[in-house]
Amino acid sequence: MKNRLLPLLFVLGGFSAYSQVGIGKLDPSPSAQLEVFATDKGMLIPRVKLTSSTDATTIGKGNVESLLVFNTNAISDIKPGYYYWFDNKWNRILISGESSGAAGSVTYNPTTNVFSYTDAAGNTQLVDISKMIKANETLTTLENKGEGVYVYTNEKGDAVTINVVGDVVANASTIFNNAEVTNFI
Fold first, then answer.
1. How many domains does the chain have?
2. Cβ neighbours of 45 (radius 10 Å)
3. pTM of the model
4. What is the domain extent for residue 153?
5. Which end of the chain is more exposed for a tag (fewer CB within 10 A), N or C?
6. 78: which DSSP letter?
7. How many CB atoms lie within 10 A of CB 105?
8. Residues 93 and 63 in one domain
């Protein structure tokens, strides 16, 4: 009878067990599924030889989103380093100073109003927005000449005189018959 109760006790005892696992630590944090503790050792991520960024055969049980490996192979479109599986491909975790090989990157300095563009080859171009605007802006003016007369000068330098008083007098009936104007007055 004792032999039959022992397995039952182990099974029932498992229901009250903690779900957190601690390696090198007796009381893992309740917010972590796995906590690794050491003061003089690191954690070794599985090392594999991927064959491409879409390699679906190296991992025996299939690639699962967020799976992390260290690739030791330099072949095809991959090189050694940390990779994670996401969106049906292996994505390399870049290290500081390493270019992603993408089309380029753009940064902006709001103090100097300068954009810097770095292409995939590492070449940097600076773009000063203030200078670019000044070089391409067009100048238009509207001058008050007094007594309801204004002079508008366009980008080409053509001047157009606007006689506000004369326009109001000439179009008084149209203005006062406009419902929006009479509602406003």
1. 4
2. 11
3. 0.46
4. 141-184
5. N
6. B
7. 13
8. yes
